[in-house]
Structures are given as C-alpha cells and as structure tokens.
Design a protein that fits this description.
The complex is a heterodimer of chains A (409) and B (177).
Chain A lengths: L2 H12 L9 H17 L4 H13 L26 E6 L3 E6 L11 E5 L9 E6 L4 E7 L4 E6 L4 E5 L21 E5 L6 E6 L3 E7 L2 E6 L9 E6 L4 E7 L3 E9 L4 E6 L5 E6 L6 E7 L8 E4 L2 E6 L7 E5 L6 E6 L10 E5 L2 E5 L4 E7 L6 E4 L4 E2 L5 E7 L2 E6 L2 E6 L1
Antiparallel strand pairs in A: 1-29, 2-3, 3-4, 4-5, 6-7, 7-8, 8-9, 10-11, 11-12, 12-13, 14-15, 15-16, 16-17, 18-19, 19-20, 20-21, 22-23, 23-24, 24-25, 24-26, 27-28, 28-29
Helix pairs in contact in A: 2-3
Chain B lengths: L6 H5 L7 H26 L2 H17 L6 H30 L5 H4 L7 H7 L3 H11 L5 H8 L3 H24 L1
Helix pairs in contact in B: 2-3, 2-4, 2-7, 3-4, 6-9, 7-9, 8-9
Classes of the chains: A mainly beta (409), B mainly alpha (177).
C-alpha cells in the first residue's frame, strides 16, 4: 500500500476516536457569556476583574469552571516575604527569555542576550541550563542585538543598527547577520538557521504560531509597523501600521491578543492591544514620557504599565487589557526618578526592577484579584539598573550589573 | 456590530454581542461541529484538547470583529483553529501534564497509539499536520488548503512536501526495523 493511502486510512480509522457530545454548544454559550461580560461591564470592577483575570491569565479548559493556572504563572510562592537568592551567575546578559514549553526540540533553558563591549565585536546569545544554573552553550549574534523571542522550535534575535533616524550612523556589519535583521537560531546547536532583513527592529515576540516584530519605518515611510514572520517560510509581511516613531518599544502576548508599547511622535508612549487574527487595534493607554522608557507586562490578572518619573514618584498602572480602564496605580518610591527599568509578572506577583538595582515584589491577591501592594522592602540585587526580569522554573531571574541572579520567589 | 454601542465602546472596538449572532453561530455549530471536532483531534491528538480547541474557536469566531459569511465559515473556522492550536493548545496539554491533571477521565484510559502511521502523523509539527489532515482526510486541493489556512500555495506545497518526507522517513525506519 502506498504512503498516501496509508495516511488516508489512518486518518479514517482515528476520525472516530473522538465523538460529539451533548451539551457542547451550551458550554460554548456559557463561555461566550463570560466573554461578553468581560467587554461590556466596565463599571463592575470586581466582576470585570474576576472574569478578566480568569480569562486573561488562565487557559480556557472546556467544562471546568475554575481554570488551571498558566505554566508561567505558576503556584503562589511558598514565602510571603522577600525573594531569596539561589544563585548568582557571572553572565552579563541584558535580556532574558524562555520558551513556551519544553519538548523534544526545545531544551530546558533560560536564554540571554549579551551586548558587544566594543566596536567590531559581536553580541552573544547564551543558553543557561536551569538544572545546573550554568551556561550550557553560546553563539555570536550580530553587532547590536536588541530583542529575544523563543517559540516552539527556534530562538529569534532582533538586531538594529543602533542609529537614530536622521543622524549619521556608524557601526559595523558583522556578517553573516545584517545590521537590521532578525536572526533565527537552532535551540540545540545554536546554529544560525536564517536571517530576515528589516528596516529597524525595535521589539520581538513569538506567539500565535508566528514571530512578531515592531519595526521602525524608513526615511521614506517612517511609521512603525507590526510585522509578522511566518516561521514556515521566513516570509515577513506587514500586519498592522502603527504610526509610531523610532523609540522605545515592547511587544508581549496574552492568551488572545498581542500588546504593543511604542513611542508616539510627541514622545509619549502608547499601549495597544492587537488581535493576531483580525488585526484590530485598540488603544489601551498613553503614558507621558520624561525621557526614559516605559515597560509593559501581562499577568496576575491584568496588564501592567510603568510610569516613568511622573509627578516626582515612579509608578505602576494596572489596566484592564480589554477596555484599557485603569484599575489601580501603585507608587514605587524605590524606582524614582526614572521609573522601573524592567517589569515582569509570575507566580501571581508583579516584579519591578529599578535603576538602582533593586527588585520590588508586588502582591496581587489571587482569590479577590485585588492589588495588595509591595511585599516588604525592595531587595538589593545589584548596583546598576536592572535590565531584564524573567519568571521561569520556579524562580525570578534578574539581569543586572554583569550578572544573572536567580531568586526563589 | 450592535448599533446601540456607545461612542466610547465603538472607539475601542467593543463588540456588543447579539442573540441573532449567537443563533447564527449555533446553526453553524450544528452543521460543522462534528467535522471541526475531528479536525481538532487531528491537530491535537487528544480528545479533551480537541473539545477545548473547538470551544475556544467558536468563542473566537463569536468575538470576531468582521462578519463571517456562511460560505467562508468552514475555512475561517479551520484557520482560526489551526492558529489557536499552534500557540495555545500545545501549551495547555503540557500544562495539564505538568500539573498532573486529566481533563476527561476517558483520556486517562486512552492507550498509547500502536498505529504507527497515526503515531507518525501525530509527531508532525502543527502546520504540517494541519495540511496533511486537510489534504488526506478532507480531500482538499493545495489551493483550497491555502485558502483555508490563509497562506500561499507555496507554503502549502512546502508543508506537504516536508510532512511526506518525515512520514516516509518515520515509516521507512519502522518497516526496516
């Protein structure tokens, strides 16, 4: 029997493995009803928070009424106090990331980007084994890596030329990775698989079966855009024009939407939600800038946006990720005057790093979905701005001051 | 979109649901549930995950901000399902295993597949598996698969070629051993 017939027969045999069942449509109606409430009940904060928190942070599991937590959300920490240091690694990463799941292709790893320290030198991509807390592999990137994303099969590194539009640009091309490009690496061998040219990548994310890049425009067409890379073909297509400018940008994803922070022409930051399917864009927030970057994170039941140095105190905004309603604001005195330099969520807490190298642990009550506040005092991690935070493998990973430190949450 | 939505809600794209839309989707569900469930099963390889995927697909379809014509529903539903599966449902399966839970009691009693061809199909990456299911179970042409998944024909050809190569290698090794 030839292969095609074998495939057909196997699919026919197993097509009967799964049976329709009564009540399936009723369950969908219930889930739609919960989805409706999330969008239209903006005034019922407690109800909207509960539903939004559950829908946002937790996967939708059929008939279960109480969804299970996300793998990355994890259980609440055993300790109600400050995080405790587990290990400090001499790895000068400025960006940390981990993959969506561990499988036969993707090794268990925390990934880090290391900047070049001098001209004509490449940056580095490093793989850290969370079991041993040691660097297990590394490879050269282009000269100026700016962002890192990990999907089910590859590690993606965005590079730009480090230049500002309209200014004379120096810097060097480090073959084979072009200055403005996204490079794709094999996670096991760290072999360079391919490179894709861009105008000026600002941020990168892997989600919804694709890789998404916030790309600054060209001199002829300067608006930022969201570009989608199809991993099967390396084809890069403009998904959405964003009309921002070359400046601080971030992109993250939730269960349903992408979230983009980019810089507007007047210098303010704008936070958007973008549907990866319908490409509908919603403006969720705008943040005044005092010249330093803002950051976003998703988790613990909300979208979080840092406010850099506003009104003499730096702060954190908690936002409904569907409506953009500001639900809470938390002042972070430790992060004054320039605001948190990094932020992440995990284990039902929000983690904020300051320019002084301190880490604040912010608690959200999981049952009530209420913002409680900062747990104890910020802990001293380093003596320089915290560059990146990551929650993975039951730990909080902190990139600061030439090190990556791992903390029990 | 419901015309009674406020200016603010329209400005931020809030979709005011209507009973008629739900009824319309319900009619499509009645007609398409079984084939979609089978397609979801081919994508996920697990009955529980397949049901979750179908449910979430219909919720997404309900929330879609553009009208879906009945003629395009089948393609749009499969495209949405394939994209959802790529990003989320493999994660859900891993999460359940990690947390030691089973979604359906029946799943716990499913035997490990001894059907080698089926095993090899389940080992394909999501994009390749979707193309194989649409090509060999739903008898779609490459153009029809491309229209369904919202990709170009070249992508479909590549996916099918790679899938057949992997299946050939996997089953060839089995027959040699």
């Amino acid at each position: 029997m030839n292969l095609e017939n074998e495939i057909k027969e196997a699919l026919m045999r197993h097509g009967t493995d799964v049976q329709t069942r009564r009540g399936a449509w009723t369950e969908i109606e219930h889930r739609v009803a919960r989805s409706r409430k999330r969008r239209i009940v903006a005034g019922a904060v407690a109800g909207a928070l509960a539903i939004t928190g559950a829908a946002l942070a937790l996967p939708r599991i059929g008939a279960e009424r109480k969804p299970a937590p996300l793998l990355t959300e994890g259980p609440e920490p055993a300790s109600t106090g400050a995080p405790t240091l587990q290990k400090r690694l001499a790895i000068p990463a400025f960006e940390l990331a981990t993959g969506p799941e561990q499988n036969a292709v993707m090794p268990d790893a925390v990934w880090g980007l290391i900047a070049a320290t001098k001209a004509r030198e490449n940056g580095r991509l490093v793989r850290i084994d969370p079991a041993t807390n040691k660097e297990s592999a590394d490879t050269a990137t282009g000269e100026n890596p700016v962002g890192l994303a990990v999907d089910h099969y590859d590690v993606w590194v965005a590079h730009n030329d480090g230049c500002v539009a309209g200014e004379v640009c120096l810097g060097y091309e480090t073959a084979p990775i072009p200055r403005n490009s996204v490079a794709r690496f094999d996670p096991k061998t760290l072999e360079l698989v391919s490179t894709i040219k861009f105008s000026h990548p600002l941020a990168i994310d892997a989600s919804f079966g694709a890789v998404w890049v916030v790309d600054a425009g060209t001199a002829a067409d300067p608006a930022t855009r969201l570009v989608r890379i199809e991993p099967a073909t390396n084809e890069a297509t403009t998904a959405v024009r964003l009309s921002g400018v070359d400046g601080p940008a971030e992109i993250i994803h939730g269960e349903v939407d992408l979230y983009v922070l980019h810089t507007l022409r007047d210098g303010r930051y704008e936070v958007l939600s973008i549907s990866p399917d319908t490409r509908v864009v919603r403006v969720l927030a705008t943040v005044e800038s005092t010249g330093t970057a803002a950051h976003i994170a998703l988790g613990a039941g909300a979208l979080w946006v840092t406010i850099p140095g506003e009104h003499s105190v730096s702060a954190l905004m908690r936002i409904n990720p569907v409506t953009g309603e500001v639900l809470d604001r938390l002042d972070l005195p430790d992060a004054f005057p320039i605001g948190p330099t990094s932020i992440t969520t995990g284990y039902w807490h929000v983690w904020a790093g300051s320019s002084r190298g301190n880490l604040s642990k912010v608690k959200v009550d999981r049952q009530s979905n209420k913002l409680i506040g900062i747990v104890g005092d910020p802990i001293v991690v380093g003596d320089a701005p915290i560059r990146s935070l990551l929650t993975a493998y039951n730990a909080v990973w902190v990139a600061v001051d030439g090190t990556v430190s791992r903390y029990a949450p | 979109m419901d015309g009674s939505a406020s200016v603010a809600e329209r400005a931020i794209g809030v979709f005011e649901p209507s009973r008629s839309r739900l009824d319309e989707l319900g009619a499509w569900f009645a007609a398409e549930y079984e084939p979609l469930l089978r397609f979801a099963y081919f994508l996920t390889g697990e009955a529980g995950a397949a049901e979750d995927l179908v449910q979430d697909t219909f919720v997404r379809l309900y929330r879609a901000d553009r009208g879906i014509e009945q003629a395009g529903f089948r393609a749009y539903a499969r495209r949405t399902m394939t994209n959802l599966h790529r990003s989320r449902f493999r994660r859900v399966v891993v999460e359940r295993r990690f947390l030691g839970r089973s979604h359906r009691v029946a799943d716990a009693h499913l035997p490990e597949p001894t059907d080698h061809v089926w095993q090899a199909i389940l080992a394909l990456p999501p994009g390749q598996r979707a193309c194989v299911a649409l090509r060999f179970y739903e008898d779609m042409t490459e153009q029809e698969i491309a229209n369904t998944l919202g990709v170009n024909v070249g992508t479909v050809k590549t996916q099918l070629h790679r899938a057949m190569q992997r299946l050939h290698d996997a089953l060839g090794e089995r027959s040699e051993s």
